[in-house]
Design a protein that fits this description.
single chain; 39% helix; Rossmann fold; six-stranded parallel beta sheet; 12 helices; 2 domains; alpha/beta; 350 residues
Length: 350
């Protein structure tokens, strides 16, 4: 028998396409919290608001055709109910003014903000500075590592080319070009490798997909783009990959990195502020490298496949329960503030 939703927690607004990573995270968090939820598409925010506080996960691509449309929707919602927000895909310093001002407007409208890394908090501070404002206090709650319902077994050695696997949407700056260049160099050195992209191309980037296939053909290796895969199938394919790679050029938080950890893999991770942050959070769970070190890191992994796996049974944290507890503690401070005590009156002794 399921327990009733906790009335002491904000209503969790799970808005957007269910297959999107941000929406999936919002749903996981709501379930772990046992909190009341509103689930639907972006138009959910145009409907009735709850009587009490709510919490919303925001990235403008989920909630409107343009950043301005998404912000108008969120601001109207915040005007009707006190709402905290978790901000995802925080704009990089070179992002458009439209995106930067969109995030600044959401921060100003919300009852409080959270992000998924200290690096994202620094990016958000820069966003507010571009809008001529200071960043109010908020919270940093790292993304959880959520193991699949069934952990895949380690595959037995097999004949044929080794597979270099990148996880996530296929779009520019995700590191696919660099991985294919590395595969080309490995092939030139006599290494039998293919590349597998575990994900779908982002709409509007079919030209990138064509470019990647041309690069693979010129390099003499195979390229497979799987498209979206159900969880069980994805976990199995991730386990079969010879070398797990996360080469995103500008990471600020990443569910893809955590997904590798969740199935027991130790991914290659491009060095940067976020990479160093999570490597300090989970020492030894990733293999950091710079651009010049990608091919050597791949060669070391190919020579020692066991190094691409975490110790058996080890799943680094935080888990979703710990993340949920952090959010609950933060909301207690945001939504349940008590009045300041009155100044004491000192009565002199007679």
């Amino acid at each position: 028998m399921s327990s009733a939703p906790r009335a002491d927690l904000p209503v969790q607004v799970v808005a957007g396409p269910r297959r999107h990573g941000v929406v999936e995270y919002a749903a996981q968090l709501a379930q772990a919290l046992g909190a009341p939820s509103l689930v639907g598409g972006p138009e959910l925010l145009d409907g009735p608001a709850p009587d009490g506080p709510s919490h919303l996960h925001f990235t403008e691509r989920l909630l409107g055709p343009t950043p301005a449309d998404a912000v108008r929707r969120v601001v109207r919602w915040c005007e009707r109910t006190p709402t905290t927000v978790t901000l995802h895909d925080v704009p990089q310093p070179w992002a458009s003014e439209e995106r930067a001002h969109a995030y600044a407007a959401v921060v100003r409208a919300a009852a409080g903000w959270a992000v998924s890394s200290h690096h994202e908090a620094d990016l958000l501070r820069r966003v507010l500075a571009r809008a001529g404002a200071d960043l109010p206090p908020g919270a940093v709650v790292h993304l959880p590592v959520v193991p699949p319902a069934r952990l895949p077994a380690r595959p037995a050695p097999h004949d044929g080319p080794a597979t270099l696997a990148a996880l996530g949407f296929v779009y520019p700056d995700k590191g696919h070009r660099e991985l294919l260049q590395a595969a080309t160099e490995l092939r030139a050195r006599g290494r039998e490798v293919d590349v597998v992209c575990l994900g779908s191309p982002v709409e509007g980037h079919t030209d990138l997909l064509e470019e990647l296939h041309r690069r693979a053909a010129a390099g003499g290796f195979g390229l497979t783009v799987t498209g979206w895969l159900p969880d069980d199938e994805l976990s199995t394919v991730m386990a079969r990959a010879t070398v797990p790679v996360s080469g995103h050029r500008h990471l600020s938080a990443s569910a893809s990195v955590n997904r590798w950890l969740a199935v027991g893999r130790r991914p290659l991770l491009l060095d940067g502020p976020y990479a160093r942050e999570v490597d300090a959070l989970r020492p030894g769970a990733h293999v950091l490298h710079d651009d010049a070190g990608l091919v050597p890191a791949l060669e070391r992994a190919l020579d020692d496949p066991a190094s691409t796996w975490l110790p058996a049974g080890e799943v680094p944290g935080p888990d979703v329960a710990a993340t949920a507890r952090q959010y609950a503690a933060w909301w207690a401070s945001v939504h349940r503030a008590v009045a300041d005590p009155v100044q004491p009156v000192l009565v002199p002794f007679p």
